[in-house]
Specification:
Length: about 400
Amino acid sequence: MTGSPSTVHVSTAGDGYDVLVGRGLLAELGGWCHEAGLNPQRIHVFEDSGVPEKTREVAVGSLGSAAVTRTVLRLDEGSKTIATLERMLVEMAGASLERSDLVVVMGGGILGDVGGLAASLHRRGVRVVQCPTTLLAMVDASVGGKTAVNLHAEISGEGMLLKNAVGAFHQPSLVVADVDALQSLPPRHLRGGLAECIKHAVIAGERGEGLLHLEQLLSAMPTLLAGDPEALVSLVRASVELKAGVVAGDERELATGANAGRRALNLGHTFAHAIEGCGQTRVLVDGHEVHPEHGEAVGLGLIAAAVLAEKLGLGSADLTDAIRRTVASAGLPGRLSSSPSFNTLMAAMRQDKKASGGQLRLVLPTPAGVVMRDDPGNEPLGRAWRALLSAD
């Protein structure tokens, strides 16, 4: 085994689990599973074809004497569907996985979400090890046990993608975050993962330390964008520690009233999911007008949430400016180049899973952290959306 990775323990209603963060971890995946007490007779591996073949082969080769079966997939938001989930369940059944066996998911957050949901459903639940290979998956999707697929639906006469509309809570037994896997990540995907890290720094607020303080994260951005491994290890560990603390306090998102609980992690996402769900939205990325990916939508959502908080007297101009500057420093778009009508965007927002009785529940940033605010009405929301269409 290589040197000890950084270990973050996630406390849950069960026994909890460890998140390992370091370099070269996938090459010894079998050893880490053994140390975690995971010694199944059978293992089924779901692999993202975007992960270099050599990385996948070495990781699978380390799994030891277990009978290993494999499925290679390449998913995007459009194929994060019940049909894909069914295919994965069929593969698991064909591998004769029993409840004492193990699923390993190696790839980005989309594969992790669907693979985790499949593991939760097969024989009413088998153990899963998440091996995230994108920054977004390492700092967000792989930790906390949320699993889901999307639905395609028509809302108010518009075709929309309903993000993570069908899912379950299914905590992993182990998470292995090998930052060396990020070296093959396309720059656009690395930048997208940084949006979730910016979100964590905003949640930490004035209490944030190190890379979870907005100004320090802003200063470190060139080093992070250059792919410095040690800086990435520090960033991933800090983000996982914050998320682990939030999850431990509200594992199944049951906090009520003004207490944000786990909903704090949805900061920016009510706007972001509406942006993703409307096919007409466009941003300028690397000189091309494209539909925004998740991280890009989250960056925009953070800006919109900050503007809304400021207009409601909850945030501050300084915080809004700091968020804008940090999003820009990560190479993420700060505005929409085109979008559908306000009514269409609002219809998409109201599909948010936090909505209650048709009323939006928004997570908004303040200098001290985040607060919950019930539907503030169309006029303030219109200002927030217009801030994403302004050239300023």
